């Protein structure tokens, strides 16, 4: 990788689908097995060689900052007890990356949240990683996207084939051909279309590589779906610009855990839990027994 990238993690949502649990706790801090969801995303960024991370937060998000800070009294207590295993996990999160926070202010959509990162990223390309989408560490995605961006200079989004019944939950891409490296050229995007209006079943999932050009487009992007400033609408303009580098997609077929709604959140915990060496041996037989009673 020839450029040092920064990562931007929008984390300003209200988490209304998880109320009342998210009344006082950010949804990004809900545990997935034994780590908050947002830690998986930071670990993914670090694995891709990114250590400078900006989180776009809203009110009641102090828990996020606290999680990635050191806790001397807890570390001292664990040291005194000789619990070096737990001490290691506590210290790990505080040493992962350089974490910065900026408030979004009023929640005006993903496009608005990304624009808040303008001064942080400066004149360099950057990665946007949404905390609702957890990508399994065994199936790295961001490095492939960065390689496509460095080859083309284009914005790059992660795509995944989804059930046509679910296209209304995503931005959906129209593509025109496949490149030698497996990436696809995106010629149009539409945010959360009805099934009958969707141009494909290739949905945008929560990973993007963007150049600073996107900020100029976001500044003139009008509120769209949900009366919010949609990143998809800005990407659509970039994709349609005949003089620009365009937008490319990387179609992901690896393991992804969607923690965006309650059912998928529970599935994510079970999927990750059964594959853990310390939990799987006890969890797998119990799941089989439990499933047999349904």
From TrEMBL:
Family from the record: Belongs to the UDPGP type 2 family.
CDD domains referenced in this protein's UniProt entry, alphabetically: UGPase_prokaryotic (cd02541)
Superkingdom assignment: Bacteria
PANTHER family named in the record: UTP--GLUCOSE-1-PHOSPHATE URIDYLYLTRANSFERASE
Residue ranges annotated for the Nucleotidyl transferase domain, each copy included: 6-271
UniProtKB keywords: Nucleotidyltransferase, Transferase
Gene: galU
Protein name: UTP--glucose-1-phosphate uridylyltransferase
InterPro entries named among the record's database cross-references: GalU_uridylyltTrfase_bac/arc, NTP_transferase_dom, Nucleotide-diphossugar_trans
Top-level enzyme category: transferase
EC number: 2.7.7.9
Keyword Cell cycle: no
Molecular function terms, GO-annotated: UTP:glucose-1-phosphate uridylyltransferase activity
């Amino acid at each position: 990788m020839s450029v040092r990238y920064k990562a931007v993690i929008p984390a300003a949502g209200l988490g209304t689908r998880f109320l009342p649990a998210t009344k006082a706790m950010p949804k990004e801090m809900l545990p997935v097995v034994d780590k908050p969801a947002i830690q998986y995303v930071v670990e993914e960024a670090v694995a891709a060689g990114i250590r400078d991370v900006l989180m776009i937060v809203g009110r009641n998000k102090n828990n996020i900052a606290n999680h990635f800070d050191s806790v001397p009294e807890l570390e001292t207590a664990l040291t005194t007890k000789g619990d070096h295993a737990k001490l290691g996990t506590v210290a790990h999160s505080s040493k992962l990356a350089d974490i910065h926070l900026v408030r979004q202010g009023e929640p005006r959509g993903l496009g608005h949240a990304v624009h808040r990162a303008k001064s942080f990223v400066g004149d360099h390309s950057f990665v946007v990683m949404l905390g609702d989408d957890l990508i399994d560490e065994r199936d790295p995605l961001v490095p492939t996207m960065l390689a496509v961006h460095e080859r083309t200079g284009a914005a790059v989004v992660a795509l995944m084939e989804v059930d046509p019944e679910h296209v209304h939950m995503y931005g959906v891409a129209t593509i025109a051909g496949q490149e030698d490296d497996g990436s696809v050229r995106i010629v149009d995007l539409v945010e959360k279309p009805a099934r009958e209006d969707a141009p494909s079943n290739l949905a945008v999932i929560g990973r993007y590589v963007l150049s600073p050009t996107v900020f100029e487009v976001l500044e003139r992007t009008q509120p769209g779906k949900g009366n919010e400033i949609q990143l998809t609408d800005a990407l659509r303009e970039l994709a349609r610009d005949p003089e620009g580098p365009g937008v490319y997609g990387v179609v992901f077929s690896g393991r992804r855990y969607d923690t965006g709604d309650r059912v998928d959140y529970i599935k994510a915990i079970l999927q990750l839990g059964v594959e853990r060496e310390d939990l799987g041996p006890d969890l797998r037989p119990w799941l089989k027994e439990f499933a047999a009673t349904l």
